[in-house]
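QA checklist item 7 of 12: single-chain prediction sanity check.
[x] sequence parsed
[x] length recorded as 85
[x] structure emitted
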Amino acid sequence: MVHLSSKWISHLIAQPETGVGYQVASVLLHDGRRFNQVVINGGYITQIRGLDDVPFQEDDIREILVTHDKWDFNKERAANFRDQS
């Protein structure tokens, strides 16, 4: 999980929510990598589709683009939990 500073929070507040209390975005890093379907909730990057962890820190972020590319991340998380049991 990555906590976002007021720099990014101000940017995100100006964007519509994807769902109640969260946004789905693409995150572009300074090194050129791009992560799609990133969930941002309560000022935190909480998950990225297909990854177990967030592989970057806030200082690595060049741009956040709110895309609203939804997927049922709670259902996917529950399925992954069942598979690991």
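[x] summary fact logged: DSSP finds two helices and five strands in the chain.
[ ] second reviewer sign-off
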